[in-house]
Amino acid sequence: MTIVPSGDAAPATTPVGQGGVGPLLRAWREQRRVSQLELALQAGSSARHISFIETGRSRPSEEMVLRLAEHLDVPVRERNALLLAAGYAPRYPHTPLDDPALAALREGMERLIQGYEPYPALVVDATYNVVAANRGITMLLDGIPEALLTQPLNAMRLTLHPEGLAPRIRNFREWRGHLLIQMERQIALQRSAPLRELYEEVAAYPVPESATGAEPAEPVPYFALPMQIEHAGRTLSFISSISTFNTPLDVTVAELAVETLLPADPATVKYLQSLLP
Hints:
434 Repressor (Amino-terminal Domain)
């Protein structure tokens, strides 16, 4: 599947209030549960200076804003919001994925997920819109209603919707719980309004009747929670792995994630190798 822009609006950043950068930095610090003294030691400053920045008595330099954001693990998109609130220009560009400047990135991701075949792999953005997928993913989506396959595809909707993959997932309750917890953690880290809207939508989906009251699949000595999914009368088992880019300098790149589904048993390996040689 060719890499395509998701088509959705970019996730909203933290609103820039009239109080300047201080309240925003304080909110990130409190969310990360770091004291002023701890942050000061990490950033090579003093607790007094951090206090003055947070209360607006001192205007931090551009370098200090970025240093504090780094130690507070503020997402790249939100670092731009902090810079704007402090009166500086955004540092990190937000390049559309189809821009020629990202051609090497697109080609690299295409080669990566195609090279993973016959096993499933896909690339998603910050709100789980699918921007690329290989034939392994296409195979799993066989038979999904067209209404769920319109652009932009959304991995969470496809997985949790009662007309999507949900009825096919044998351990659906376990897998659903895992995905919702994953989204909750991301919301806490990123404070993304669009991601929270998506979470509220998919969390409200009814559980398919096939999963109502059903016991989880019989325990197997897997090394991680597998997704056990029915396909063509077989039960396939996959372990999910998610990769992101180190030290991204672009908002778009920072919000991309590559998810690969590793076969969790020999039967799944054999079936996929026979299906997608």
